[in-house]
Specification:
The protein has about 675 residues and is α+β, with helices and mostly antiparallel strands. Helix content is about 45%, strand content about 20%. The protein has helices at about 25-35, 85-90, 110-125, 150-160, 175-195, 205-220, 280-330, 335-350, 385-395, 410-415, 455-520, 525-550, 560-565, 590-605, 650-660; strands at about 5, 10-20, 45-50, 55-65, 70-80, 100-105, 135-140, 165, 235, 255, 260-265, 355-360, 365-375, 400-405, 415, 420, 425-430, 435-445, 560, 575-580, 585, 615-620, 625-630, 665, 675. Strands 1, 2, 3, 4, 5, 6, 7, 8, 9, 10 and 11 form an eleven-stranded mixed beta sheet that branches. The chain has a five-stranded antiparallel beta sheet with strand order 13-12-18-17-14. Helix 5 (about 175-195) crosses helix 6 (about 205-220). It is elongated, with a radius of gyration of 37 Å. About 35% of the residues are buried.
Length: about 675
């Protein structure tokens, strides 16, 4: 019976492989387990007899991507085929959600197939399950034998329901994934029919969803390989020697291989004096078998749960170590963006999201995305209204907070992106007593499973390993900024009087030369030289006045033609691209010239060479005219490039842009620097 857990947003489905003995049921599960992605599969538990035949089931837990926000967990079981284990087959069918009947195609197995199908139908009825309504797929296995029944003959004998049929050679992997995909599609369709919340009509059809699930589970939808001889499982060192039979009343310890556990069981024989007789003996024997089968089933489930708990604990410990490693790298001088990328990838894996961003708060400004995963830009940061809604939701939150697009119009509009619609986001705050230090934001599509309570608890542990480091890094950055500001202030105070004296000297020189030029006895050579000297003198005076105004926190604006300004920067090493729509800006030409030279020097210093080719692009945008400077090196940044912070030159350029009513965006070590100015 389907276990639908709204709290954990999980669906547990039981798939049973049924069929005659030696038909290939266990082979199907072993191949599924071997080929599944390690992160998507669980332990393969096989409960075997002393003769190494499956007496109860092979339990293969698989986890597939969910739909409609749920995570689908599959419990795949194969029943024993031997006649003596009919009670265990009946037990395993209890609560089954869908069936795969694995028929043996061998010519001499005709009667066994029919008898097994008849028994399966009777067992379903005994559990009050409708055999006609149960999702069913037939796998006609062992098609490589010399003498096999025709598929049409098998259909006439077995497939009265006209269910889907998959020919297979399981030992080669042929038909194994096709069978699982077929039963997954029918199971999903059945779930969507019975549970409205799981409706897949608006999303992918069931068959398409099943194929995607196979890709997520196995990385492919078909298998084909040469069969290999089975590897004997490694017996635990605590087990008795193979030649020594287990003591009466005990079970041998489990045998294990990588991800594969075999539990060997041998029930003790009943004492002769207590041996029942007649009909009473049969009844007691049947009761004993069912009790034993039930105990074995509970044992297999308990082993699986214990191993899952162990694996979860190991995974959580490893995740916390990775977060601590990122914290150490950040304190060791790694740039913030580079240190946060592995943390964001870690959180995305835990939360089951493909798109994510890490926000860093900024004083007096919206947060900026220090790291992105699966996104070119953050959709919420581009919408002030949506950002306000998310900020209000996490203002006082100390744990992960889920925000749904359907609950807020602004958020819904921000997440409704062309080509990729998002339905929710999970905000994970990185908070200390000093305030919010960062926010990990995971984005989910309409059919992406939301994290359950355990995943949310695990996500809440990650900030504990990193929040204090983020606060310390922000504090150190503030201290460095204060030191730079103090240096600039001291330098500015000393240079202001010098600039005033320089401007006054240039004005005095200009006036004095003008007076000499006007005198009647001025020599002709002086008048000729004055004509060449006057423009340079006027430019020097204009630059001096601009710098003096800048030192006082003022700016002199005029219409500046970008073509003329950028022409001064164009060299064989500097490529200039100008959009005709960005012809002019309102600015101080002298200050812009200083700012552009400072940006170019900063980008070159980050690339490690003063002759690095540059590309300068200017274009009109909705917020003004943008001038972007980027390194044009083909080999990118050197791997050993140290952490680079914004130098004094870039700080000067930012101040110039802000005085003009614009801004400066620093893309980091390998990014471009963009200065935005108001259009004329």
């Amino acid at each position: 019976m389907v276990e639908l857990n709204h709290r954990d947003r999980t669906i547990k489905v039981k798939l049973v492989y049924y069929g005659p003995p030696v038909g290939g049921k266990t082979t199907n599960l072993q191949i599924l387990h071997r080929c599944a992605e390690a992160r998507r599969r669980g332990e393969l538990i096989s409960i075997n007899s002393a003769q190494d035949r499956t007496i109860l089931f092979d339990l293969l837990p698989l986890r597939t991507p969910g739909f409609r926000g749920f995570d689908l967990r599959l419990q795949v079981l194969a029943v024993p085929g031997q006649a003596m284990y009919s009670a265990t087959r009946r037990l395993v069918l209890k609560g089954a959600d869908s069936l795969v009947f694995v028929a043996n195609s061998a010519l001499d197995r005709w009667e066994e197939n029919i008898q097994s199908l008849r028994e399966m139908t009777q067992n379903l009825v005994s559990h009050h399950l409708d055999p006609e309504a149960m999702p069913l797929v037939f796998q006609y296995n062992k098609r490589d034998l010399p003498q096999v029944l025709e598929i049409e003959a098998l259909d006439r004998a077995l497939n009265a329901r006209k269910a889907e049929v998959v020919p297979a050679i399981a030992v080669r992997g042929e038909g194994v994934l096709e069978t699982l995909g077929a039963i997954l599609a029918r199971t999903v369709h059945d779930l969507a029919t019975r549970y409205a919340i799981l409706d897949v009509k608006e999303g992918a059809p069931a068959r398409q969803w099943a194929e995607q699930a196979l890709l997520e589970l196995f990385g492919r939808t078909r298998l084909s390989f040469e069969p290999k001889a089975p590897t004997a499982p490694r017996i635990d060192s605590a087990a008795p020697p193979a030649s020594s039979p287990p003591a009466a009343g005990s079970s041998p310890p489990p045998a294990t291989t990588a991800g594969y556990t075999v539990v060997r069981v041998a029930p003790p024989p009943a004492p002769p004096e207590e041996a029942p007789r007649g009909a009473t003996a049969d009844a007691r024997a049947s009761e004993l078998v069912e009790t034993y089968a039930e105990a074995s089933a509970q044992l297999g489930t308990a082993i699986t749960e214990l191993r899952e708990e162990r694996d979860t604990a190991h995974q959580r410990l490893g995740d916390l170590r990775k977060a601590l490693a990122s914290a150490q790298s950040l304190l060791g001088g790694t740039p913030l963006e580079a240190a946060l990328e592995p943390v964001l990838a870690l959180m995305s894996r835990i939360g089951g999201a493909d798109q994510a961003a890490f926000w860093i708060p900024q004083r007096g400004a919206p947060p900026h995305a220090a790291a992105l995963l699966g996104l070119e830009t953050d959709p919420v940061l581009a919408s002030p209204a949506a950002l306000r809604h998310v900020s209000e939701a996490v203002t006082r939150a100390s744990r992960p907070t889920l925000a749904l697009a359907a609950e807020n119009l602004d958020l819904g509009q921000a997440l409704d992106r062309p080509g990729q619609r998002l339905a929710a986001l999970l905000a994970v705050p990185f908070r200390t007593p000093g305030g919010l230090q960062g926010l990990g934001v995971l984005y989910y599509g309409p059919d992406t499973a939301r994290p359950g309570p355990e995943a949310l608890e695990h996500l809440a542990e990650i900030p504990r390993a990193l929040s204090a480091t983020l606060e310390l890094a922000a504090t150190l950055q503030t201290v460095k900024a204060a030191e730079r500001a103090l240096e600039l202030a001291l330098a500015g105070t000393a240079s202001l009087s010098g600039l005033e004296h320089l401007v006054a000297s240039i004005e005095s020189l200009r006036d004095r030369l003008g007076e000499i030029r006007k005198r009647p006895d001025a020599p002709a050579w002086f008048t000729e030289q004055y004509v060449h000297l006057a423009p340079a003198l006027a430019a020097a005076l204009n630059d001096g006045r601009s710098l003096l105004a800048f030192s006082r926190g003022e700016v002199r604006t005029e219409t500046v033609y970008l073509e003329d300004l950028l022409a001064e920067l164009r060299t064989p090493e500097v490529t200039v691209e100008l959009d005709p729509s960005a012809e002019t800006v309102r600015a101080d030409a002298a200050l812009l010239r200083v700012a552009l030279h400072a940006i170019a020097d900063e980008v070159r210093s980050r690339s490690g060479a003063n002759t690095t080719p540059l590309t300068i692009r200017a274009g009109a945008w909705s917020d003004g005219v943008r001038v972007a400077v980027r390194s044009a090196r083909e080999d990118g940044m050197p791997p050993e490039s140290p952490m680079v912070t914004a130098g004094l030159g870039l700080g000067l350029a930012r101040r110039i842009a802000e005085l003009h009513g614009g801004s400066l965006h620093d893309g980091g070590v390998a990014g471009e620097v963009v200065m935005t100015l108001p259009a004329a």
